[in-house]
Amino acid sequence: MKPLLKTIHLKVVAGEKILCGNLNIEVLPGQCWGILGPNGAGKTTLLHTLAGLSTPGSGTVLLDGHAVIDLPRRQVARRVGVLFQDHSDPFPATVMEAALVGRHPHLGRWQLESERDIELVYAKLALLGLESLSRRQVSTLSGGERQRLAIATLLAQQAELSLLDEPINHLDVNQQINVLDLLTEALSQGQTAVMMVLHDINLATRYCDHLLLLFSGGETVHGRADEILDQEVLGRLYRHPMMITDGPHGPVYLPA
Predict the structure, then answer these.
(1) Considering the chain, what percentage of its residues have pLDDT values greater than 70?
(2) Looking at the DSSP assignment, which residues form a beta bridge with residue 245?
(3) Residue 44's CB: how many other CB atoms inside 10 A?
(4) C-alpha span between 144 and 124 (Å, rounded)
(5) Which domains does the chain carry?
(6) Is the pLDDT reported for residue 142 higher than 70?
(7) Helix 143-157 to helix 173-184 angle, to the nearest 10 degrees?
């Protein structure tokens, strides 16, 4: 199976600091990758590099076999959806208008959204419980409502690969599970893939079949979650001893 995303000897740096060195991974359709690491390890910078928004220190990121940094941004946007940590509102807009931005990569230069686009976006808003807020100004939303709007916008984009930076930030437990369910429900069809930065280890092990661990200093460990994850490697990752117990969805990792 051809990978949606592939890195070849990827090195990610911030100034003179090496965040990630010599990373070689393949993200295949149907896979869900979780990116874990301590604060300051470079998770956000790595995600931006994978999306082609930052230039790597060396190495290559391939999107469907082509260097992502060389592809036109509109072409990338048709295939890759990116969710950032922070959301800005440069222009006044309603919730519906903001969510329709997810359809823009699929429109021509002067093409307006079709009735089908509007119906699709409204359906995504409904999945996130925002249909009754469709006419509200985005500036009036709470932090959690803005996060759900960002998820709805990304779902409306219908990208093959979703790169998400802390997608459950600002959400309560019920909404966290709902969002992660929505993001991963299409993976079983084997046509899309997800990579997301998460801070909750146990939600990562519950939803992600593959993990990429970023250690301070540029070291990485990656592979199938059930093969690479144990309390020893997590203790080294977070510099704190961890313990393991059984939970309803598999192992549960807790600070010792």
Answers:
(1) 98
(2) 252
(3) 16
(4) 16
(5) 5-87+159-255 (3.40.50.300)
(6) yes
(7) 10
What is the reported pLDDT for 71? 93
Rg value, the chain, Cα: 18
Instruction: State both tokens at 193.
Output: 């893939």
Strand ranges for the chain from DSSP E = 5-14, 17-23, 26-27, 32-36, 58-63, 66-67, 80-83, 161-165, 193-197, 210-214, 220-224, 242-247, 250-255
Return the structure tokens found at 41.
């390890």
DSSP result, 175-244: HHHHHHHHHHTTGGGTS-EEEEE-S-HHHHHHH-SEEEEE-TTS-EEEEEHHHH--HHHHHHHHTS-EEE
Query: What phi, psi does 218 have (nearest 5°)?
Result: 100, -5
Count CB atoms within 10 A of the CB of residue 60. 15
Instruction: Output the average pLDDT for the chain.
Output: 93
Q: The tokens of 200 are what?
A: 């909750």
For residue 36, what are the β-bridge partners?
213
Of the CA atoms within 13 Å of residue 120, those in its CB half-sphere come to: 16
